[in-house]
Amino acid sequence: PPLNEGDLLYMPTTPPGISITKARELLQQTDKIIASHPQVQHVLGKSGRAMTATDPAPLSMFESTIILTDTDTWPEGKTIEDVIDELDRMVQFPGLTNAWTMPIKTRLDMLATGIKTPVGIKLMGDDLDVLSEVGQQIEAVVGELDDTLSVYSERVVGGNFIDVDIRRDDAARYGLTVGDVQDVVKTALGGMNVTWTVEGLERYPVNLRFPRELRDDLESLGSVAVSTPMGHTVPLRAVADISVKKGPPAIKSENARRTAWIFVDLDTSDVGGYVKAAKDAVDAAVSLPAGVSIAWSGQYEYMERANQRLMIVVPLTIAIIFLLLFIHFGNLPETLIVIGTLPFALVGGIWLLWLMDFNLSVAVGVGFIALAGLAAETGVVMIVYLDETWERWKAEGRLVTIEDLKAVTIEGAVDRVRPKVMTVATTVIGLLPVMLGTETGTRVMKRIAAPMVGGLLSSTVLTLVIVPAVWFLWRKSQLRHHPPTAPVAGDEATDA
Predict the structure, then answer these.
(1) Which of 127, 142, 369, 470 is the most buried (most CB within 10 A)?
(2) Over residues 430-447, mean pLDDT
């Protein structure tokens, strides 16, 4: 489950080719709308990439950090999911694909997998045009699923570029080299840092280039003056062809293959169930061309790795518990009796998960592993008292008939209910602060504690009923195979 960090990160995506002016306008509009929400204290947005190699964000990716007010001031019963739903309904712009997440979590996800949403789809192949086409097909299919909040397929060839194709013969006619023309394009149109300005502790570069009205369309670009060695100037169009062409805004590669990413934001926390449904829908509706492969990433990738580990850890845990019990009891029947209580513990844990509307997750798996140890402990307590009573009656010579064995079972089980319940109660009471807490981190801790609390309650009831009964049947067979040596008169001897 996601850790509730107390704040939000709004990371919408626009189609590639957006201008800086339009990006700034959209960023200001979305921040203004978000700031008007009653539970938002402050919002600060960023568009484009920062001066760091770890944040290769294109201009089409916004990042708005949202600082929320104290939860004590929120209306009763309002959760951060409710705030996200309200903000998502408020911020709806054509061409803007919303994604809501947590600040720290997103940074870790982007560094680990590159996917900022709970589920990501990575298409890998050699031809970017084919990847872009397949990505849009998958985007249409996944967007129809019920639990899809938003989906965006990267337009890997959707960037707009101004292509200046220098005509070498014409440039030579004016005494210009290719480098001379490129210097004009680089400085007059792209801009060049000529100096720095120091404002206290801050330093800013001073960039020099033509004003916007001289470079805001192809006609103006063609009129840019190029100085010649002969002392006069010629327009740029006289020595170069200027056109707008489509191309990749960024080229991603993974495992030595070009990739296109599809970001999928969910309206559910059941990542595994959603990916299964999405895989079935994609397999049925989209036919992958030759040389194109698909990989599901994001939180789903973490979950798959965790499930592989749990497939090893869970059986290993049960094996270790079995070994420790066998070393303690020294016999197989009592070890099997205690191990047999573990499935009954699962019953209560699963019911409590259902009542609290928790999905199976890594945290839940950890809770069930801890539950296995606690359930074994409660079973050991019962077996120990039963064995002590058996040995005492046997030493006193009172253990003769089946009725005596019933009395042993009653004394060892029923009369020891109080310490048994106290053992369970101390554990459950110790976990109550976690179950009732609302602070940061309790979302994960509740999913660890819920199987333990529910499982202990069910295992206690069933252990009090089933373990003494199974123990009685086992000891009954021993009593029959090893009858008492002393003669016993009356009907009791016949029964024995």
Answers:
(1) 142
(2) 82
Query: pLDDT at position 56, please?
Result: 67
DSSP strands (E only) in 40-118 = 40-47, 62-68, 100-101
pLDDT(492) > 50: no
CB neighbours of 130 closer than 8 A, spacing ≥ 6?
Answer: 289, 291, 292
Q: How many Cβ atoms are within 10 Å of 154's Cβ, its own excluded?
A: 26
Q: Stretch 286-293: mean pLDDT, rounded?
A: 87
pLDDT digits (tens, 9 = 90+) for 77-99: 888 888 998 999 999 888 888 88
Matching residue, tokens 């293959």: 257
Which of 464, 346, 378, 345 has the alpha carbon at shortest distance from 415?
Answer: 464
d(CA 387, CA 392): 9
| 429 exposure class (CB count in 10 Å sphere: 0-12, 13-18, 19+) | exposed
Q: Which residues contact 118 (CB under 8 A, 6 or more apart)?
A: 264, 265, 266, 271, 298, 299, 300
Q: Is the dihedral of CA 87, 91, 97, 103 positive or negative?
A: negative
Phi, psi torsion values for 33, nearest 5 degrees: -70, -45
Q: How do residues 339-365 score in pLDDT, each as one tens digit?
A: 887 888 888 889 999 998 888 888 888
Please report, to the nearest 10 degrees, the dihedral formed by the alpha carbons of residues 270, 273, 276, 277 taken in order.
-100
The token pair at 225 is 């003056």
Angstrom distance (rounded) from CA 416 to CA 40? 56
What is this structure's pTM?
Answer: 0.64
